[in-house]
Amino acid sequence: METIYNYIDIKKIRELSKEEIPTEERSIFNFPVIINVGRVENSERTRIFD
Questions:
Q1: pTM of the entire structure?
Q2: Is the pLDDT of residue 8 over 90?
Q3: pLDDT tens digits, residue range 20-50?
Q4: How far apart are CA 29 and CA 47, in angstroms?
Q5: Residue 39, class by beta-carbon neighbours within 10 Å (0-12 exposed, 13-18 middle, 19+ buried)?
Q6: Number of other CB atoms surrounding residue 25 within 10 Å
Q7: Which of 17, 24, 49, 50 is spaced 20 to 30 Å from 10 by Cα?
Q8: Among 33, 37, 41, which residue's Cα sits nearest to residue 13?
């Protein structure tokens, strides 16, 4: 068994960070921004309340 940790391609991120932000999205960054990425999925023992 082998653990595969989250892989982050730093070189690709740096390359993409140099791209121009589209005009219609620039206003989002007029203030400090926190960006979070994740997913929503049911876990095995999730109980749904009525």
A1: 0.44
A2: no
A3: 999 999 999 899 999 887 777 776 766 666 5
A4: 39
A5: exposed
A6: 8
A7: 24
A8: 37
